[in-house]
Amino acid sequence: MKRIAPRRLRESRFWETVGLADMTNEQWEALCDGCGKCCLYKLQDIDTDEIVFTNVACRLLDCHSCRCSDYPNRFEKVEDCISLGPENVGELQWLPSTCAYRLLDEGGELPEWHPLITGDANSVHRAGISVRGRVVTEDEADADLENHVLDGEP
User: What is the pTM of this model?
Assistant: First the structure.
């Protein structure tokens, strides 16, 4: 399912004038570019705290659309699903460098491929930013996540 923010939201360029903490739920949700990177399993080194991505996706991630297949019920179905909000976005060091929430929290701008800029939900895929075609589901993965560590961000 392709999701794109309503034209009125895109044309308002709300992300340039409204702080993350002051956004409506609709504005907050519209910031998600649909890359799917936040739904990948990550590993953290116990000694160095270094975080690495794997190419293994949460069982609810639709690996083609790069969207959660049961977004409204994700917290009931996935015990360790993390709720991303303005209160914790700055603390989640594993958010990818391309993430709109992270970019805006750090004072950056939305990239030119972001669906709010292009008006096209598929622009994130065409730009090669999403995980489409590059991940496996939990069911397809080797039981040892260390065998699925990526070199850098996906």
Answer: 0.90
